[in-house]
Structure formats: C-alpha cells, structure tokens
Design a protein that fits this description.
It contains 25 helices and 5 strands. It is of the alpha/beta class and about 525 residues long. The chain has a 5-stranded mixed beta sheet with strand order 2-1-3-5-4. It is globular and about 80 Å long.
C-alpha cells in the first residue's frame, strides 16, 4: 500500500521550488548588486555593515561565476535553514501544529517571503538570530533536555559573535537574554536557575568570545575612524530632530502590510499575552527576547529615518506564539480555536499581498491601471516596483559599446560612473554581465567610479583623492527615472550631453535610463 504523502512537505518543497524559479527569472535589485560588489572586493568589514554577507557570496561567485542565480544561492540556503530552525523552535516551545503553520507562513508573509529573495545582510542576520533564540531556549527550557549553563553560553557566545559579523543589530538579542533572566528572578520556581546563570562565569565568558569574534569589524573600523559605529549608532538615529508622528504611523502601516494586518495584530496580541504568562518559560521567552529590539525600532521610527524590515527578526520570535493562539484560541478574548472568521481574514489579506509575485513575470500593474483609471496616460513606470528588477544588463551592454566607440573617436580612455551606490552597483553588475573579459574590467574595484561625495562603501574603496586623479577625463554617467539627478549638480565638467535609453516589458515602458556623455572632469 502506497504511503500517504504529507501535505506539509508538498507545500514546503513546492514553495522552495517556486523560489528557485523566481531566483532565475528576474534580475538583481539594488542592494543585491551592492553587496555583490563587496564580495568582489573582499574585506574584513564594510562601512554599512560587517562582512558576513560578502563572505558567504564570495565562494559561490568565485567557483560558479557572476550570475544572478549564483549570487542568490547563499540566500536560498540560508532561508531553507531558517525554515528548519523555526520549525524546531516552534515545536520545542509549543507543539508540532504550531511548528508546521509557523514554517508555512514564512513563505506567505511578505516580510519573510517576497522580501527575502536575495542574499542580503538581513537574511544572513536572520539565520544567526533565530539560531540564537533556539540555543537560548535550550539553556532555559524546564525539562530534562535543558543544556548546562556552560554548554549553552559557549555556544551562544560563538553564534552571537558570528551573527555580529552579519549585522550589528544582532546585539539587541543579547538585551533580550538579559531581560529574560531579570524577569525570571520574580517567579520563585525559576529564580534559582536564573541566579545560578547570572552568578556563573559562562555568560560573561560567552560575551568575551563574542567580542573576540568581532575582531574583523573592530580591525576595519580602527583603520577607518570607526565609521560603521558612528553611522549605525549615532548618525542613523539623528537624521531628524523631534518626534514625527506621521512617520511613526507610516511605520506602523508598513509593519502591518509586510506581515499582513491580521497576523501583525496577532503578533502584537502575542507580546501582550506573553507578559501575562511569565510563569511559563515559553511565554516568558516570547515576552522578553523581542521586546528590546522592538522598542528601539519603534523609537527609531518616531525620531529618525527607518527601514520597515529592520524589525523582521523580532517578529520571527513572536510568530510561533501567534500561530499557537490562533490554533488553540483565547478564552479571555472569546477567541475560538482555529476560528474560521479569523482564518478567512488572514487569507483575505495574505492572498492579495502574495500577488506581489505576479508583476515579476508579467507587467500586470500598468495594464490594470490603464483599465481602471480615468486618466490612463498619467501612469508612471516608477509606480510599478517590479520594474526595478529589469534593464541593467541591457544598459551595461549598451554603455560598454558606447565606451568603445568614444575611445576610438577620441583616442583617450572613457570612464564609467554613477552618483549613488544603487546606480554604481547596478551599472557594475550590468557591464560585468556584458563584458567579454570581466577580469580585465575589474582591474580596479569596482569598474564604475563614484562621482559624488556621499558616504557609502565606495567612498572607502575610492577615496576622494583617488577620484580626483581622473581630472581631465571623459565619463559616461548613468542614472534613471528613479534617481534622475543631473550629474553636473555634484561634479564639474566642461560639457554633458544626455541620452535616454528606455526599457520595455511586453511593449510597455518599464524604465528610462539616462546616459550622460560628460567631457573633461574638473572635480567636485
């Protein structure tokens, strides 16, 4: 008799297969190419973030070449590992049903499904973040499988150290660990273990191990005036002055959309409920581990610029609790177990949010706009986010041909340039894909010059004085309809002529690139 196929595994492997197809079907977005250029110029650390994202990309592109599937493959492996850890964590904390639904939802919640396609610092952070939560649970679980304090904190120290090399936000989880043990001093039954933990040398030795493993970050920053720490812990939090409640509510709206409104509300409810169940270790973990990071990111959104995905790892801790509440109900709120009404509301929001994938395969958004708008000619290609995945390889091919043509005409070298990190990295990717000899193209790193004074990793790869050695040279400078700034606003030239280079998808205008031929660079 044939063994019955488990639908859970059908869903898991089907969704993984879909992600593989998607990885091969669409181009890289700005941050993907930015971190790919890091991997082409390997370092201890980098300005924006530590070096882990570049380190995990580097072996793949060196073995298999500079292809979009190859750049995304480390992210796919990391995402698969995150699924496995979330499954085991949710099973440990609650039960197998919570584990299964938590894992499935990771595919369909936009924050972890659509937004986790590439190999990005947040994806790399995610694997160490959720691994640390799992390791911490092993140190406090109330059964006979609890790890010793020594074993737990040696592992936590090492994984935290590696995680810090992915993204400095990993340290926020350490605040959650400390909060857990402080709260654990209140219930009599948990007080002894937490006191023993806090009195033992192992958490402090684990912290020392973490700092030792941060050596690459500390080395790079000591050579670069501590630029990462100044940016991440000071400048990024002081980009505005005073509370901005409009921005804060906008942040709440983004959180709701990235997780779907009902699931977001369930997670908020989970955090609140967890603080009423502190006597139980699993709920205490839910209450304390995500709280410090959530408070910091919600505060950040009120007083300065933010990225809506920063809080993603924090919510990943709350997901199993939210699923458990849905599956088992909540008497205090008269919420029935597996409520059909709530389930329908979840589906009502998740289904349209997952239609985000459709425009990647076909330009449906402008067609819907044309069919439903009273002013179809007012459509702007920049309104369709999916267009950002297309066009750079074609631009790179054209720019290389134009560069060769100009060099033949003038008998002097022509340099490629852009004026934002997104444009620099994408143009670098485009010309690398189109060049018959990419190794020669990368004789200086990257092969596209940054003709601005704005701070990014390229300011360290190409210091201002090095850029000024190109005085008197001619440049081809590329930007687009998303970043259309005239290059003469940031750099001086004798003359610049502008050429439009449109990109079409299914005969619909998707993007317009602007290629400037600028003569005789005269500085900034």
């Amino acid at each position: 008799m044939m063994k019955k196929i488990d639908p859970f595994w059908v869903i898991i492997f089907s969704m993984l297969a879909f992600r593989l197809i998607l990885m091969m079907s669409v181009g890289l977005i700005d941050d993907e190419t930015y971190h790919w250029t890091w991997a082409k110029n390997l370092s201890y650390s980098y300005f924006d973030h530590p070096g882990m994202v570049a380190w995990v990309i580097w072996p793949f592109i060196n073995i298999f070449g500079d292809h979009r599937f190859v750049v995304r493959w480390p992210g796919f492996l990391i995402y698969s590992a995150v699924l496995a850890i979330v499954y085991h964590l949710a099973k440990n904390l609650f039960d197998v049903h919570a584990a299964r639904w938590s894992t499935i939802l990771l595919f369909f919640i936009p924050l972890w499904g659509f937004a986790s396609l590439g190999t990005l610092p947040d994806m790399v952070l995610g694997i160490f973040w959720i691994a640390l939560v799992y390791l911490f649970w092993q140190s406090v679980r109330p059964d006979e499988n609890r790890w010793s304090i020594k074993k737990s904190w040696l592992w936590i120290g090492m994984v935290m150290g590696i995680g810090m090399n992915a993204k400095l936000a990993c340290c926020l989880l350490g605040l959650g660990f400390g909060l857990y043990h402080l709260v654990s001093l209140i219930p009599v039954e948990s007080r002894k273990h937490s006191l023993n933990t806090l009195k033992s040398p192992w958490p402090y030795l684990g912290t020392v191990i973490t700092f030792i493993m941060m050596t690459p970050i500390l080395l790079w920053n000591s050579e670069n005036e501590w630029a990462t720490f100044k940016y991440q812990f000071a400048r990024r939090h002081t980009e505005d002055f005073g509370a901005n409640w409009t921005r804060w509510f906008q942040f709440i709206g983004y959180q709701s959309l990235l997780m779907s409104p009902i699931i977001y509300l369930l997670m908020v409810l989970t955090l609140i409920i967890a603080w009423t169940k502190l006597k139980k270790e699993n709920w205490r973990l839910m209450a304390t581990l995500p709280l410090p990071s959530l408070l910091i990111f919600y505060y950040q959104a009120l007083f300065s610029a933010y990225k809506p995905h920063w809080s993603g790892p924090s919510y990943m801790i709350l997901l199993p609790g939210a699923v458990f509440i849905y599956l088992n109900g909540l008497k205090s709120l008269k919420l029935k177990s597996r409520s059909r009404v709530l389930g329908l509301f979840v589906a009502f929001f998740l289904v349209p949010l997952n239609m985000l994938y459709l425009p990647l395969f076909y330009p449906v958004v402008p067609k819907v706009f044309a069919a439903t708008s009273s002013q179809p000619k007012s459509w702007q290609p920049t309104w369709d986010f999916s267009n950002e995945f297309f066009g750079w390889v074609e631009v790179g091919d054209y720019v290389l041909k134009k560069k060769s043509q100009l060099e033949r005409e003038t008998g002097r070298p022509v340099f490629l340039a852009a004026q934002r990190y997104e444009l620099i990295s994408q143009l670098t990717w485009g010309v690398t894909q189109s060049s018959p000899d990419s190794k020669k193209l990368w004789s200086h790193k990257p092969p596209v010059w940054d003709l601005s004074t704005e701070t990014s990793q390229y300011l360290f790869d190409q210091p201002i004085l090095q850029r000024l050695t190109n005085k008197g040279s001619d440049f081809l400078i590329v930007n687009n309809d998303k970043y259309p700034r005239d290059p003469r606003e940031l750099a001086k030239f004798d003359s610049c002529t502008k050429q439009e280079f449109p990109i079409y998808r299914q005969e619909i205008l998707a993007r317009t690139f602007f290629i400037y031929t600028c003569r005789n660079f005269a500085g900034f």
